[in-house]
Amino acid sequence: MDKLLIRGGRQLRGEVLVSGAKNAALPELCAALLSDRPVTLHNVPRLNDVTTMLKLLRNMGVAAERDDGGTVRLDAGPLHTPEAPYELVKTMRASVLALGPLLARFGKARVSLPGGCAIGSRPVDQHIKGLQAMGAEIVVEHGYMVASIAGGGRRLHGARITTDMVTVTGTENFLMAAALAEGETVLENAAQEPEIADLAEMLIEMGAKIEGHGTSRIRIQGVEKLQGCTHRVVADRIEAGTFLCAVAATGGEVLLRHGRADHLDAVIEKLREAGVQVDAVEEGIRVRSQGRLKAQSFRTTEYPGFPTDMQAQFMALNVIADGTSTVTETIFENRFMHVDEMLRLGAKIQTDGKVAVIEGGHQLSGATVMATDLRASASLVIAGLVAEGETLVDRIYHLDRGYDRMESKLRGLGADIERVAGAAEYQP
Ligand SMILES: CC(=O)N[C@H]1[C@@H](OP(=O)(O)OP(=O)(O)OC[C@H]2O[C@@H](n3ccc(=O)[nH]c3=O)[C@H](O)[C@@H]2O)O[C@H](CO)[C@@H](O)[C@@H]1O
Ligand SMILES: C=C(OP(=O)(O)O)C(=O)O
């Protein structure tokens, strides 16, 4: 199993390329299921989640090829098995995104419930409820969602769907299902994340009729058939935000090429209040930091609020910043798994339910720590970059799930970081 060895204390300087967004690429790979025509995606990040999703699609009979330049070519024309088996979905939440498109195009699907994850319980009840409102019959048996069209029909029908809470993948499943349903679907309480808007743009390129994406009400007029398309995956705002935090912590100056400042308002505002200079420039985002920070309190909320996927990385800043701060996690009930590992590095943090109180201003000292989930891993890397001495981050398969060659990007900026022991986890 690979580990990352970091020798802290170096400033970050130079340029780094922000990759395509994991959370846009995964639904967009599933969107290819909606058509029997070829779909080409550019700017697909090199992630283990993408590899897993391609395996899942190939297992269904989809022809899928990827090249080293980030282009993936898919053809779901030959699809023969509308199924997502447990072995392939257990490591990846996004596999639930196969359900909507398969049901919409084939009128049936068998998709394993996605595996549990260290950040909390992640039910799919809203996905099921919404698709049922569109005419699906879904039973959960032997760990699988077995779905068909009620009354033996051929197509889903439009519906007005109001979810109990804002759900990102739920909104994406409904969007894809509604694109091929008969009649109009209105999604109330829809998620507004940039990845949803990017998916909607791709569906529109395929011939879908969608309005209101990027807002909390999305209207979709179903069509009978979707064509193929060529689409470029939007830049990863969470990867960009992670690099912003890394530079803020170490000090230095970096250009995040292709970074979208307009997708990171809540994070950038907090960074500026912390004393970091962040500018939107033509090429992306420029960040400058002296490494002296003022701690910032924040609470995670749905987009456009502070993203839960940036909570751990920003907490790493609060640990070293001057002052006491509180971080409130409102989206997932168990997303403070990085706290115990940060304590090993010398942080002072107390948690009580969804609130963490951080007493800042402490010099961290390197130690062996264990990554518990994707963003927790990233926060430990940031902490390791400023800790005195060596930090060894274990179980970085979590990191490889969602960051595109993070250690080589950091090394390119001057960090002393290397991957040790075991073969690279990434498989093309
Ligand atoms: C692949 C992908 O895009 N993953 C992102 C997506 O996850 P994901 O789409 O799984 O997260 P959701 O937006 O659905 O979850 C929001 C909240 O709703 C709850 N919920 C959700 C669905 C449901 O049927 N029932 C239910 O109770 C969840 O447990 C959670 O408490 O959005 C999260 C919140 O921004 C991000 O952290 C993940 O990176
Ligand atoms: C929680 C995340 O991803 P996933 O939903 O794929 O587990 C994340 O990207 O931080």
From TrEMBL:
Main location: cytoplasm
Record-linked SUPFAM superfamilies: EPT/RTPC-like
MF annotations from Gene Ontology: UDP-N-acetylglucosamine 1-carboxyvinyltransferase activity
Record-annotated active site: 117 (proton donor)
Record carries keyword Cell wall biogenesis/degradation: yes
Its EC number(s): 2.5.1.7
Annotated Enolpyruvate transferase domain residues: 7-410
Pfam families per record: EPSP_synthase (PF00275)
Modified residues (2-(S-cysteinyl)pyruvic acid O-phosphothioketal): 117
Catalytic activity: phosphoenolpyruvate + UDP-N-acetyl-alpha-D-glucosamine = UDP-N-acetyl-3-O-(1-carboxyvinyl)-alpha-D-glucosamine + phosphate
Positions annotated to bind phosphoenolpyruvate: 22-23
Location(s) in or outside the cell: Cytoplasm
Record-listed UDP-N-acetyl-alpha-D-glucosamine binding positions: 93, 122-126, 309, 331
InterPro entries: Enolpyruvate_Tfrase_dom, Enolpyruvate_Tfrase_sf, MurA_subfamily, RNA3'P_cycl/enolpyr_Trfase_a/b, UDP_GlcNAc_COvinyl_MurA
PANTHER family in the record: UDP-N-ACETYLGLUCOSAMINE 1-CARBOXYVINYLTRANSFERASE
Protein family: Belongs to the EPSP synthase family. MurA subfamily.
Name listed for the protein in its UniProt record: UDP-N-acetylglucosamine 1-carboxyvinyltransferase
Source organism (scientific name): Variovorax soli
